[in-house]
Amino acid sequence: MLIRRIAEIEGGFGARHLTRRYGIVLAVVAATAVSDLWTKRWAEQNLATGEHLLPVRAEGIAPGTTVGDLVRSRWPDLDDGALAGSLFRVETDTRFTPDLPAFRVEDNAPPIHGFFVFDHGDLRRFARRLDRPDPAREERRVAQENPGLAPEEVRARVRAALDGVTLDAFLAEALPHLSDDERRTTIERGLFPTRGRRDLVAPSAPAEEGDLYLVGHRQVVLIPEHLDFSYVENPAGAWGLLADVDDDLRRTVFFVLSLVAIGVVVALLVRPPSEHPLPLIALGGILGGAIGNVVDRLSAHYVVDFIHMYWGDYHWPRYNIADIGITVGVIVLLLTSGSRKKTDRATRNRETSADLNRQGQASLRADAPARS
Questions:
Q1: Which residues participate in catalysis according to the annotation?
Q2: Order of strands across the sheet with 114-117?
Q3: What is the pLDDT of residues 67-119, one digit of tens each?
Q4: Could you give the CA distance from residue 233 to residue 293 in angstroms, rounded to a whole number?
Q5: 281 to each of 20, 34, 269, 321, 342, how far by Cα in Å?
Q6: pTM for this prediction
């Protein structure tokens, strides 16, 4: 029904024409969306920051293997100099349960700064580092808001508030993309303590069989001082426009905007700006890019960006393949919309000339008997 209706709107273009048109669009949509999602997953598994760390397990290692050697078996570009200060050993023998108080789990152990978190307890993917809020900072905030309170009362209030926060509640706020069941699995199988400098490992240290290590820094430089691949999670949209908006509201806004964008693209597919293939490719790029970013926002509440361009102190915001498809697509549509206007004007002129010629010929035929 849809193809038939489109054919009627377009004035009788054949099914073969429509098949070719939408075949082009679907091919570009699939290529853009698949390449975008694949490169984002590649970035998750191969780019590291202090908050997004890459795991390496010591399994079946040869005697004398250092932690640096172990890391280089996966990423040969990371020498000991690059790894210094960014290698951590995970306390995999420490386990937690969801109902434990997030700020008192170490009552009988060295202080905990925060947690290494593996979503769904999958130790093969990547770890996040989540720092706990500093109680001293909370005490300062409460004291500023209540200047008449004694220091002992301030500490008691802060301690009472923090004692009521379980690990489940702490992760529910920090990682809202996890469901209740996923969060429980994450806490029981993929949550480990961080203890600051105690976690650091020298790249020259011997690797211990069975240990799990984390790499806290890796980027891929393509053009020195101008272009690299480096990881960032973007929950707030382009240029951080929605950074201060509530997470649920932000998800709703992005979802609605995505639906509107997809609707506009479908409308343009019915009557594209031009019969030239370029607008069709542009529409496919926009739709594929929108799909790629929507999948990330619905599944993880953020979009992975990793393409980083800079010149001196000027840094362009990081972006991804979906952003390229959308941006280039919009530019091509703007350029080709002008060509469609010219084409439509020329077509109308030709039709007007043809009508005038037909009218003139009809007049001549009508006058011929009178002259004879």
A1: 305, 323
A2: 87-89, 212-215, 52-57, 127-131, 114-117, 191-194
A3: 999 999 999 999 999 999 999 999 999 889 999 988 887 666 778 889 999 99
A4: 12
A5: 12, 15, 11, 15, 20
A6: 0.78
